[in-house]
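Researcher: Quick one. two chains, 233 residues in total.
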Amino acid sequence: NAGVTQTPKFQVLKTGQSMTLQCAQDMNHNSMYWYRQDPGMGLRLIYYSASEGTTDKGEVPNGYNVSRLNKREFSLRLESAAPSQTSVYFCASTHRESHPSANYGYTFGSGTRLTVV
Amino acid sequence: AQTVTQSQPEMSVQEAETVTLSCTYDTSESDYYLFWYKQPPSRQMILVIRQEAYKQQNATENRFSVNFQKAAKSFSLKISDSQLGDAAMYFCAYRSRRGSQGNLIFGKGTKLSVKP
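Model:
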């Protein structure tokens, strides 16, 4: 099925451990995003990639790094996990603004629930 | 910077009744998109309805409709004939049409409960 695939779905880390969240889309979208969702806070943008080869910081980038590996894949890395990074993480993708289908909003993955203890 | 405000953290509706969820936003732009997303307990983010700011006509998708008041910067969602499956978190979101600023900005959400 076409869409956005995130792995893993659940993860528990100890403080200081590192891990990479994987995201891949098969809709030929140019732009990809990583959000975190915390209770009462909505979804906040961590990093985004407007097109292959570019990445930019969002609202809450501290403690994270990203890699746009190719047009399909956009990974999020936690180098030294902290309890404050306990959250649900969503990857999303969409066409660039100039694309005729840009008004269809974002397509989201199913999320990763990360707990840092 | 644009902001999106959902002033109702929780709402409740009786099955088969109608409910309206509120959303206001702040922007200096004239051309943008607005969206409502639904997040059921499964956690999946589902696009419910979208509105392009240049269109005066309010968007409608089956039982879901919006009241878009551009001058007031208001974008409310009306759910008619509410069903048990409508119970979820609902997020209002804004997206600029200007280049790299086309990131989706979310409100904090409204939790909708549907009573049988």
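The radius of gyration of chain B is 14 Å.
Researcher: Thanks, that's what I needed.
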